[in-house]
């Protein structure tokens, strides 16, 4: 039976297995987790069994062709994940202290921003910092903010900027939103359209968790109706394709350099915009490379003189 005097010993036994627990939480497959860490599968299995024996409860149970963590396993894996993330961050900071130009930046951003904003920023930054390495993480606003808060990513480009107390953010720019309709739609020739005119329309939307979905839902609610949603997607290009096929209308930023075939973009009245912001952890020091890239992005956007928001 585990007692309070066992905790230092158990912690010492857990430390070597922390990376394995984190990998197992992510993969739910012992073979893949072992391969990810470069250790033989039997060795990984013995480590898990030994740790379970030390704790006094199994850490995994069989689940089809894979395994899943038990409640005890999840508790330890969650702690291991935080610990390994913090250690990796410390290793990066130590390495970059010795050679700042060899740094690594994990950048999260919305799918919509990957078309031109992010590639342009990376191209121009690497012109002066060619040895800085980037890992790019795309996803919904909710998933990106969650990963930023947990420490899995360093910086995030999201819209709107997050308001979590653990994060700081600065507004970089505003982006106008348009109503995208099929080319043969009854509103396609209009110079603008009010949200209240869309109460009877069928909408194509991004899934819940995406900033654009929340903005659309809020605008519809303010106009006095709940939108009829026929399709939900995870990428704006898919949403536009569904609009072009005549399956509904959508609120989206302008497609550059011009709308794709079969889609017409109509300004909203009054004009609707969303703020795009750069966010970072408020309570975690940034590595030299991350701090340098943050300064570059803010300077590029003319945001050096703006106030960072501490939500």
UniProtKB/TrEMBL annotation:
<dbReference type="InterPro" id="IPR005119">
    <property type="entry name" value="LysR_subst-bd"/>
</dbReference>
<feature type="domain" description="HTH lysR-type">
    <location>
        <begin position="21"/>
        <end position="70"/>
    </location>
</feature>
<dbReference type="Pfam" id="PF00126">
    <property type="entry name" value="HTH_1"/>
</dbReference>
<keyword id="KW-0238">DNA-binding</keyword>
<protein>
    <submittedName>
        <fullName>Transcriptional regulator</fullName>
    </submittedName>
</protein>
<dbReference type="GO" id="GO:0003677">
    <property type="term" value="F:DNA binding"/>
</dbReference>
<dbReference type="GO" id="GO:0003700">
    <property type="term" value="F:DNA-binding transcription factor activity"/>
</dbReference>
<dbReference type="InterPro" id="IPR036390">
    <property type="entry name" value="WH_DNA-bd_sf"/>
</dbReference>
<comment type="similarity">
    <text>Belongs to the LysR transcriptional regulatory family.</text>
</comment>
<keyword id="KW-0804">Transcription</keyword>
<dbReference type="Pfam" id="PF03466">
    <property type="entry name" value="LysR_substrate"/>
</dbReference>
<dbReference type="GO" id="GO:0032993">
    <property type="term" value="C:protein-DNA complex"/>
</dbReference>
<dbReference type="InterPro" id="IPR000847">
    <property type="entry name" value="LysR_HTH_N"/>
</dbReference>
<dbReference type="InterPro" id="IPR036388">
    <property type="entry name" value="WH-like_DNA-bd_sf"/>
</dbReference>
<keyword id="KW-0805">Transcription regulation</keyword>
């Amino acid at each position: 039976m585990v007692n309070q005097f066992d905790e230092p010993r158990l912690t010492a036994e857990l430390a070597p297995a922390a990376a394995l627990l984190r990998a197992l939480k992510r993969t739910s497959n012992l073979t893949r987790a072992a391969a990810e860490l470069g250790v033989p599968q039997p060795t990984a299995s013995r480590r898990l069994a030994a740790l379970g024996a030390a704790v006094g409860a199994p850490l995994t149970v069989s689940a089809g062709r894979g395994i899943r963590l038990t409640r005890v396993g999840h508790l330890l894996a969650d702690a291991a994940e935080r610990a390994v993330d913090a250690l990796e961050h410390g290793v990066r900071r130590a390495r970059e202290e010795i050679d700042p130009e060899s740094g690594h930046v994990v950048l999260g951003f919305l799918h919509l921003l990957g078309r031109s904003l992010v590639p342009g920023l990376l191209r121009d930054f690497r012109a002066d910092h060619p040895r800085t390495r980037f890992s790019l993480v795309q996803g919904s606003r909710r998933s990106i903010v969650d990963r930023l808060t947990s420490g899995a990513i360093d910086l995030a480009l999201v819209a709107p900027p997050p308001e979590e107390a653990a994060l700081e953010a600065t507004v970089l720019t505003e982006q106008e939103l348009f109503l995208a309709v099929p080319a043969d739609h009854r509103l396609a020739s209009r110079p603008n359209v009010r949200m209240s005119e869309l109460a009877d329309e069928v909408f194509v939307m991004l899934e819940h968790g995406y900033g654009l979905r929340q903005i659309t839902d809020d605008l519809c609610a303010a106009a006095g109706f709940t939108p009829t949603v026929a399709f939900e997607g995870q990428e704006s290009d898919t949403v536009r394709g569904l609009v072009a096929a005549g399956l509904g209308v959508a609120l989206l930023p302008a497609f550059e350099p011009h709308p794709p075939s079969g889609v017409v973009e109509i300004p909203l009245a009054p004009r609707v915009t969303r703020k795009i912001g750069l966010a970072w952890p408020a309570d975690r020091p940034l590595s030299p490379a991350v701090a340098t890239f943050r300064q570059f992005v803010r300077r590029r956007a003319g945001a050096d003189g703006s106030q960072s928001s501490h939500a």
